[in-house]
Amino acid sequence: MALVWPPNWITCRLPAALIAQVKKNLGLGNHVGRSSGVERKIAGAKTDTVAIIDPRHAAKQLIYERIFRSATLSAAILVLLILGGVAVSLLRGAWPAIHHFGFSFVTREIWNPVTDEYGALAPIYGTVVTSAIAMLLAVPAGFGIALFLTELCPPLLKRPIGVAVELLAAVPSIIFGIWGLFVLAPVLQRHVQPWLIAHLGHVPYAGNLFKGPPFGIGVLTAGVVLAIMVLPFIAATMRDVFDTVPPMLKESGTGWAPRLGK
């Protein structure tokens, strides 16, 4: 390794004691002057490296770092401001209903424009049940996909399958809705919902979800569509988590599995 002392980017004047210490750490001895520009080759020397930076260069870097820090902080604050603006906008739009109906607006199921009576319980219930069905379907499927891609999938298929799953996130939600309405709903109406009504319709509490005629559209269809929509995000997150697990911990878990079986 060719070493030039001093480097051509050093333009600051340093105290003699500091220069002597730097030369001592670099193993240059007293033969290299402060600005002699003598080249020496040091092979296999285990010495500490001391970097001396131009103060003007350091000042510019500090300015750039402050600008970058301010830009990232502004972006984070902007996200909070947007979220706060959305919350204020929703509260402002919902304030007439809150002022007129009070808290009973979220506990009433009626929605009758003729009598000017409204309640949000049905939409809230549908949102909660649909999300629960989606999580029950998407989390196990995402776990299986992530486990297969990280541990069992052949190298030639890992990237194509991973890309295919992640591409589901690029499909617009309206496409999933149309597909669920015209393709999935008839299939569920003819083959799935009759079986669920016949076998699960009499189960206490849970049977209320499957009672009634099989229309094909409802919370089950919406839950399946929503599960397909969130599946790539869950699979990608679990895949990243599995990739960060050290191999030693994976082998330890594999070794403990037979003992737990006993």
Note down, in words, how this protein is organized.
The protein is mostly helical. It has 3 domains: 2-41, no CATH class; 55-112; 120-245, no CATH class. It contains 7 helices and 4 strands. It has helices spanning 16-26, 55-101, 121-152, 155-167, 173-200, 219-244, 247-261; strands at residues 2-5, 38-41, 111-112, 117-118. It has a two-stranded antiparallel sheet with strand order 1-2. Mean pLDDT is 79; it is low at 1-13 and 30-50.
Task: Briefly characterize the structure.
The chain has 262 residues and is mostly helical.
Largest sheet: 2 strands, antiparallel
The separation of the N and C termini measures 60 Å
Number of domains: 3
- Could you give the order of the helices and strands? EHEHEEHHHHH
Helicity range: 55-70%
Rounded mean pLDDT score: 79
The counted number of beta strands is 4
Rg of Cα set? 33 Å
Shape: flat
Summarize the helices and strands and which ones pair or pack:
Elements: E1 2-5, H1 16-26, E2 38-41, H2 55-101, E3 111-112, E4 117-118, H3 121-152, H4 155-167, H5 173-200, H6 219-244, H7 247-261
Antiparallel strand pairs: 1-2, 3-4
Features:
single chain, 262 residues, mainly alpha, 3 domains, two-stranded antiparallel ribbon, 7 helices, 66% helix, 5% strand, disordered N terminus
